[in-house]
Task: inverse folding
């Protein structure tokens, strides 16, 4: 029977949670890199034993760790994330120009078919790629040097490139999202970029039709519908059916359309999941009830999923990279909270149970199906 | 021989326990003074996984929350090309690298 490995990055280390395909009994291993922030821990789709971790900390900076045995042992990979060429400036919070300054890697996106090729999203926003398993990282400079770059401004969490989607059908097509610059698409493997923010509405910026400046929190895509994208924005849940050229709001009957993660069911491309948060200034679930909302219609109509989740006095948040699905049938859904719980559903969201309850605050969750 | 004390996180990263002992030789002068730069260059050459964790890989600037102590003195803001205390270069006292006190 297939197994599942859930990769969890936290404020104080990395953890792996493993189970067989029934997903009833779990083994917890870790912490790896105890005491370090693990912004993202992920595996190669081409070789599930090849893992990459973005290890970061205020004291000692950015490291990349790599495992070739599914997380049992790790070696340090390259961490030279230099901006290439002229560094340039973006806008600071006070509206003054400020030079780009590397702070950390938020997200690692391994290639679908080459374990040695990985894309990395940085704060301050830049996109890097390695083709040698993480030893050498090269910036794809066309993104940072896009003509709109000098107008990009950080969100409250920093000017982070947090979402990278490598299109499964259109080779060379890459989507990225940056807080608070917005979403961008490349059709030529990162040689040039197009802002794709038409239809987004953000009350935090004066020009609603601005090409950039929208605080996109996360984007997801189902591999069978590559032109359909789902977005959790700062406020608003959005969808596009033309590869990001136009967006429309699908928040529908959600109790709040503020949130961070958004995920799509592995086998139902119109079934999506979000975790509504009360507001931009109150990062916890409305009414203290932790509810995942599921839409089976690609948005607009949403149902709360509550079975097994705390329905009183719950004030945790779920970060943008902390929700994932597995590809088993029924589809498994996983999410981690700032309270250190990792919840899972082995039935597409109908019921939930914690795998662990007392980890450090969870920054990222990924799910791998093992042979 | 220079004795270097690493903070716990960097010991784990470099897979060492206890003090690190480095043979430090000025590659140009051969017998020039032992400087902070020379000690860190030698340390990073032997433990390349430490590159970027103590100082910026390109500018060489000390990371903000890293401190350098020796002989009960704070050398964090000394010039990287200043000679370290004689007792450090003689191996009598360790050169201490540590993470600054900061919460979290």
Result:
């Amino acid at each position: 029977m297939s197994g599942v490995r859930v990769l969890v990055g936290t404020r104080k280390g990395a953890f792996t949670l493993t189970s067989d395909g029934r997903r009833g009994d779990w083994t917890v291993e870790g912490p790896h890199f105890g005491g370090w922030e693990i912004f993202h821990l992920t595996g190669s789709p081409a070789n599930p034993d090849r893992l990459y971790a973005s290890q970061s900390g205020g004291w000692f900076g950015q490291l990349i760790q790599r495992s070739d045995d599914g997380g049992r042992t790790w070696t340090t990979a390259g961490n030279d994330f230099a901006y290439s060429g002229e560094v340039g400036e973006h806008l600071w919070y006070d509206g003054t120009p400020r030079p780009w300054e590397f702070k950390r890697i938020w997200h690692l996106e391994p290639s679908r078919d080459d374990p040695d090729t990985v894309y990395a999203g940085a704060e301050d926003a830049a996109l890097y790629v390695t083709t040698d398993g993480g030893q050498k990282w090269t910036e794809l400079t066309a993104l940072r040097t896009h003509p709109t770059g000098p107008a990009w401004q950080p969100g409250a969490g920093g000017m982070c490139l947090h979402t990278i989607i490598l299109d499964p059908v259109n080779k060379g097509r890459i989507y990225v999202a940056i807080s608070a610059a917005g979403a961008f698409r490349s059709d030529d493997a990162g040689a040039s970029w197009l802002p794709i923010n038409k239809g987004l509405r953000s009350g935090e910026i004066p020009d609603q039709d601005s090409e950039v400046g929208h605080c996109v929190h996360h984007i997801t895509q189902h591999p069978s519908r590559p032109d359909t994208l789902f977005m959790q924005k700062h406020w608003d849940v959005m969808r596009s059916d033309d590869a990001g050229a136009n967006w429309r709001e699908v928040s529908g009957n959600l109790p709040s359309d503020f949130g961070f993660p958004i995920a799509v069911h592995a086998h139902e491309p119109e079934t999506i999941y979000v975790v509504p948060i009360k507001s931009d200034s109150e990062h916890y679930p409305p009414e203290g009830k932790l509810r995942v909302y599921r839409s089976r219609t690609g948005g607009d109509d949403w149902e709360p999923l509550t079975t097994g989740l705390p329905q009183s006095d719950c004030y945790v948040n779920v970060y943008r990279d902390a929700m994932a699905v597995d590809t088993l049938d029924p589809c498994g859904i996983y999410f981690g909270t700032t309270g250190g719980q990792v919840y899972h559903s082995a039935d597409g969201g109908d019921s939930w149970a914690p795998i662990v309850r007392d980890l450090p605050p969870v920054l990222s969750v990924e799910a791998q199906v093992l042979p | 021989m220079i004795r270097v004390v690493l903070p716990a996180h960097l010991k784990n990263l470099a897979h060492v326990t206890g003090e690190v002992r480095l043979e430090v030789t000025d590659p140009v002068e051969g017998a020039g003074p032992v400087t902070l730069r020379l000690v860190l260059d030698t340390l990073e050459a032997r433990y390349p996984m430490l590159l970027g964790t103590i100082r910026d890989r390109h500018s060489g600037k000390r990371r903000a929350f890293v401190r350098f102590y020796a002989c009960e003195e704070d050398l964090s803001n000394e010039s990287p090309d200043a000679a370290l205390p004689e007792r450090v270069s003689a191996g009598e006292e360790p050169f201490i690298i540590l993470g600054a006190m900061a919460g979290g």
